[in-house]
Amino acid sequence: MLALRVLRAWTRPARAGVADLSLPERLWLSAGLALAATAVVLSASRAGLLAAGIALLVLLVLEIVRGARGPALRSLGIAAAGALVLLGGALAVPFTRDRLLGASPLSTQSLEGRFGFWQDSLAVLGAHPFGVGVNGFLNANAAESVAGSTLDSPHNLVLQVALAGGIPLLVVVLGIAAAVVACGVRAWRAAARGGVGHARADVLAAALAGLAGYGVALLTHFTAPSTTIVAAVLAGTLLAQVPDGGLRLRLGVTRSLWSGARTVTLAAWVLWLVVALSAEVPLATGVAAAAQGNLPAAEAAFERAGALRPWDADLRGIAAQSFAAAAAAAADGGLEGAAPIAVSWAERSRQALPGTVSTERALAVGQLNSGDTSAAGQTLEALVELTPKDSAVAVQNAVVRYLLGDISGAVAETDRALSLDPANPTAVQLRGLLTSP
Q1: Residue 401, Cα to own-chain centre: how many angstroms?
Q2: How do residues 205-242 score in pLDDT, each as one tens digit?
Q3: Which pLDDT score, from 0 to 100, does residue 20 have?
Q4: What was the pLDDT predicted at 418?
Q5: What's the CA gap between 76 and 256, in Å, rounded?
Q6: Which of 120, 295, 297, 391 is the most buried (most CB within 10 A)?
Q7: Longest CA–CA separation in the chain, Å
Q8: pLDDT for the residue 15
Q9: What's the confidence (pLDDT) of residue 146?
């Protein structure tokens, strides 16, 4: 959003309508642009660097279409310089350089992981061409996973949309995206008739470039509120029309009354958002406290988070998983007292969001470590139906079958786990114990 503004401020302020900017103001704008580029470089994100490059390319194309031969050549040179700055900065930062060149083990692992995510997602989409519903990917993917996957997003916007609502929803979303771009380009062309450097044309060009970069980045990442809000603002910039006052005249509402109602509505909305988002603080505190073994502090933090966001079933599921991890540590002689709390939070989560794999796992761990083996067996029977290819669940079920005295069932579940994952060390060890004299 700052690139063209900074370019105009230093190269042609009079014609760009920024001649009134003082030197400190130009320096502040330039510092903002420099810090934005620095953030991209220090993020060590290859998708972020690619998105920045795509945004730069879109700005360059629009400048070439808009300007004469001389300005176009100058824009080309400036864009090349900007690309070199980004590339040089990426190569100058050791961790970013290693990620970019594939020298870091993490870079190879994350790249291979993306291809694994997409392959699993395509398998789920093939089995569910009309989608798995909102937030249904976790369960659907777990049903096809052998290694107990907890992946809740395919890390690709196209696949995410297709899995949420199937091919029909994907067609609708792509149509909306194409319409936004078409409207944006039409508005940009209209504004560009005002000449090179026209302020509104620059804003529209920047919005188009930003959305292009956003779309490219989301081909390897998952959506999040923090970035979606920014993209929505850019889309609104492209679609916005100059108000003509017609609505106000037809409804007979005065400017002051409409302005006051709008202000009150926005204030209430912002207050609600602040309250909802503030739940993230006690949520993080609860997760950390549970990991550290401070159960009273963890439970109090999760209760505060739940009070701020009572509709959020995922929040209760996170609490259940955190206490289940502590309960599993207790089984090895660590923290005690976490298992009943894990059961309580899992029960609260499943009331609002039943049949969630991660919550059912936490419930089974809590029940088993609470000594309620019979209830753990019932939970695992249902979990086996949800994740028939998960070797870890099969091993856990085998242990519970053994504790319940069902030796043949324990052997059968162990054999099933080994057929799914022959290298599962727990299953190999358990099989030896069950078959030993």
Answers
A1: 38
A2: 999 999 999 999 999 888 887 788 889 999 999 998 86
A3: 66
A4: 85
A5: 48
A6: 391
A7: 92
A8: 53
A9: 56
pTM strictly above 0.85: no
- The 3 state secondary structure assigned to the chain is CCHHHHHHHHHCHHHHCCCCCCHHHHHHHHHHHHHHHHHHHHCCCHHHHHHHHHHHHHHHHHHHHHCCHHHHHHHHHHHHHHHHHHHHHHHHCHHHHHHHHCCCHHHHHHHHHHHHHHHHHHHHHHHCCCCCCCCCHHHHHHHHCCCCCCCCCCCCHHHHHHHHHHHHHHHHHHHHHHHHHHHHHHHHHHHHCCCCCCHHHHHHHHHHHHHHHHHHHCCCCCCCHHHHHHHHHHHHHHHCCCCCCHHHHHHCCCHHHHHHHHHHHHHHHHHHHHHHHHCHHHHHHHHHHHHHCCHHHHHHHHHHHHHHCCCCHHHHHHHHHHHHHHHHHHHCCCCCCHHHHHHHHHHHHHHHCCCCHHHHHHHHHHHHHCCCHHHHHHHHHHHHHHCCCCHHHHHHHHHHHHHCCCHHHHHHHHHHHHHHCCCCHHHHHHHHHHHCC
Do residues 30 and 8 touch, judged by C-beta distance below 8 A?
no
Which residue positions in the chain have pLDDT lower than 50?
16, 196-197, 334
Report the C-alpha gap between 416 and 67 in whole angstroms: 68
Identity of the residue numbered 42: L
Share of the chain above pLDDT 90, in %: 30
**CA separation, residue 28 to residues 24, 25, 55, 68, 78 (Å):** 6, 5, 22, 30, 20
Give the C-alpha distances (Å, rounded to integers) separating 184 from 115, 219, 235, 238, 241: 33, 22, 8, 5, 11
